[in-house]
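thread from #wetlab-drylab

HS: before we spend reagent money on co-crystallization trials with TNX, can we at least see a predicted complex? here's what I'd submit
DV: go for it
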Amino acid sequence: MTSDDTAVPGLIPAPREVTWGAPGAEPFRLDAATVLAAAPGAEGVARLLRATVGAATGLPLADGTEGSRVELSLDPALAPEAYGLVVDGDAVRITGGSAAGLLHGAQTFRQLLGPDAFRRAPIAPGRTWDVPAVVVEDEPRFGWRGMLLDVCRHFLPKDDVLRYLDLLSAHKLNVFHFHLNDDQGWRIEIKRHPRLTETGAWRSRSKYGHRASDLWDETPHGGYYTQDDIREIVAYAAERHIRVVPEIDIPGHAQAAIAAYPELGNTDVVDTAALTVWDSWGVSPNVLAPTEDTLRFYEGVLEEVLELFPAETSPFVHIGGDECPKDQWKESPLAQARIAELGLKDEDELQSWFIRHFDGWLTARGRRLIGWDEILEGGLAEGAAVSSWRGYAGGIAAAEAGHDVVMCPEQQVYLDHRQDGGPDEPMPIGYVRTLEDVYRFEPVPPGLSEEAAGHILGTQANVWTEVMQNRSRVDYQVFPRLAAFAEVAWSSLPAPADRDFAGFDARMTDHYARLDALGVDYRRPGGPLPWQ
Ligand code: TNX
């Protein structure tokens, strides 16, 4: 597609091959007579189409195989996430390599229907919907196309999480990295350790205003997901063929847990009984004590996590490992004795000891460990995969050593970072990363050997919520940049300098209309701010 294709819908992310019908080719007309023909295995996607397109159009899309119809079928000859879509005057035929591929095809069909197909209720009952004749053949570049959502710095209610899963699916993203504990809050109910949420989910102060000049307000803040909430989120993601990566961050980012269970901390150097949930940003110095009891405690946590996040949809479990200040371990006679007893060289190796323990523990239970690139320090656990966030270097080193890698360098794809350098930018955090910068992000760094490049599973955009107090602020930071990110992760784009940003930007005109219909408070090029 080029920027000249103004007469046809701008598809995002761009499919691999699109052939629009000849001028004058008959469009497909969706109306009250249109039926859904779902082959075996396609029932779930049929249900989602009724829930989205059915709701937006007000059309019944009843089961049927004759006349005006949308056919959904599977073709195992296609790659699992690949799909084909053929629209002509008679029918819409969507074929997926698996139900996941079929759903991607259904999302493309939704985009072809026009922006109003993204509404929740019909605004013009009785209207008809014309879909241009087209043939699409499509499949993703990467198998890991993700977004991390930090629900710790600010809690987001369950419905907001479900809505984000819908937004990921609409952008053909397939991994949801669920950051569940941090210094500022513990967000998942753990039955055997109830104080993690009774105490650890609440802090005394809430907001950091969205401008640099704003300060904390003194409203208490908190919240957590019950185990039933988690089950609902996991099921909702599975229906949308989104894998969930639960993250339990150790041994740093642990102050909320220590506030709940003071014995988890370095009690010989800190009065951990006096600690409360961290109510500032930055990284707390209060980290886990390297004891056997700490390991047992977190094994208990992870046992419940594994039960809630089944292996089929959560093959990876994230164990954090980032930004663990080592000062307390340096000062603590108990930690030093532990280093000696375990025959370790230093505190880096002590951090590694934690990670290696859980690598073995998770592997024995059929899961794979993934951690932030700090887990390279002190030696990488055998089967570990790495989220490369401090630039590309950690990911390159891990991939060259034969470890799987998810590329998420902060300079490129941290969506908490500001979108513009102007004085009016409401959340002036980090580097300036414009829509175009994200569009020119390349997950596979040049110069990697072919073998190492094969270890780049894919990429994810990370949304840390220190300055995002609610869904609206999250939307503002995430969109429209997530659309550019989705195209990077899905489409086989040329090298960054050769990417057609103007063409992408032209297609974004249609995409903004979709985001409007979806009620996303995205950053509008040229303003105004969505909440003004
Ligand atoms: C670094 S990414 C962090 C987060 C912060 C983020 C802010 C990572 C593993 N750690 O704890 O929220 O920077 O951009």
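DV: The mean pLDDT is 94.
HS: ok that's useful, forwarding to the group
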